[in-house]
TrEMBL record:
One Pfam entry name: KilA-N
InterPro entries named in the record: KilA/APSES_HTH (IPR018004), KilA_N (IPR017880)
Protein name: KilA, /APSES-type HTH DNA-binding domain-containing protein
Presence of keyword rRNA processing: no
Keywords: DNA-binding
GO molecular function terms noted in the UniProt entry: DNA binding
Domain KilA-N: 3-139
Length: 274
């Protein structure tokens, strides 16, 4: 499975990500259940409680050998005072905490280890925590499904073959005088050649048709399509080395995609996987 997943809990979208092989859940998203416009404020209110700080400190002491207990004691002594406030950033920087982290970007926000996230959800609402745990368990069950694991293997295989594919593009299609931004364009062009042959559209065409999707055209591909894509990347690399024009390669790859898809859909073994 990919590193980032989204689960739906009582109408709230919550991101789950991997950090050092552990599951971390977005506290920012959980806080939106209480106040969608002031999630940071909700999170800070939770962190200023003495019980919260004691729980966070205990978790770190059990899981983090580099935890700064001296700074932790200082926060614990101040907790509960009207003037005391604590942000995730301050907690992380002062105590070397690993149970909480913040990141920017598409999947940005404040994330916490699932143990801590469930504790925060309890503070938000006991009912909400229950639904969160149920959805999280459903996600973990889905990740362990053999068909999903096979899908993940094919996705990884596709990426490995893509590296071989781009090496062939660099060697045969890119003149030495091209600027870096032009080279990137050629790579994108070749990737869309495969997209056209297999999906009948470019990556941009797919995004335009699916504006609300969090993935891309290949993330949403079926197992059969990923198997074919993996094969096509190797075949296209070979055709590039042979000096075949792009137009002719597109025609051949499309015929290969049709033939392989027909074979895969008729294969009894693959039907059993699905």
């Amino acid at each position: 499975m990919s590193k980032n997943h989204k689960i739906e809990v009582q109408g709230i979208s919550i991101w789950v990500t991997k950090n050092n092989e552990d599951d971390y859940i977005s506290l920012t998203d959980i806080a939106r259940q209480k106040d969608a416009l002031r999630s940071d404020y909700i999170l800070q209110n939770w962190m200023r409680n003495r019980s919260t700080i004691e729980y966070l400190g205990l978790w770190e002491q059990l899981n983090n050998p580099d935890f700064n207990s001296i700074e932790f004691d200082g926060f614990k002594n101040q907790a509960g005072a009207n003037s005391f406030s604590l942000t995730p950033k301050r907690w992380i920087e002062n105590t070397n905490a690993i149970g909480i982290f913040s990141k920017a970007g598409r999947y940005g926000g404040t994330f916490a280890h699932r143990d801590i996230a469930f504790e925060f959800a309890s503070w938000i609402s006991a009912e909400f925590k229950l639904y969160l745990v149920v959805e999280f368990q459903r996600l973990k069950k889905e990740e362990s499904d053999p068909a999903k694991l096979n899908w993940n293997f094919q996705r990884m295989l596709s990426k490995v073959n893509y590296a071989i594919h781009t090496d062939a593009v660099k060697e045969k299609l890119i003149p030495k005088s091209l600027a870096p931004h032009q080279i990137k364009f050629v790579y994108a062009n070749e990737a869309d050649l495969l997209n056209m042959a297999l999906f009948g559209m470019t990556a941009k065409d797919w995004r335009d048709q699916n504006p609300d999707s969090t993935g891309n055209i290949r993330d949403m591909a079926s197992l059969e399509q990923l198997v074919i894509l993996s094969n096509m990347e190797s075949i296209n690399a070979m055709l590039i080395h042979q000096g075949i024009t792009q137009a002719e390669r597109l025609k051949q790859l499309n015929q290969i995609a049709i033939s392989q898809m027909t074979s895969l859909l008729n294969a009894k073994g693959l039907k059993k996987i699905n």
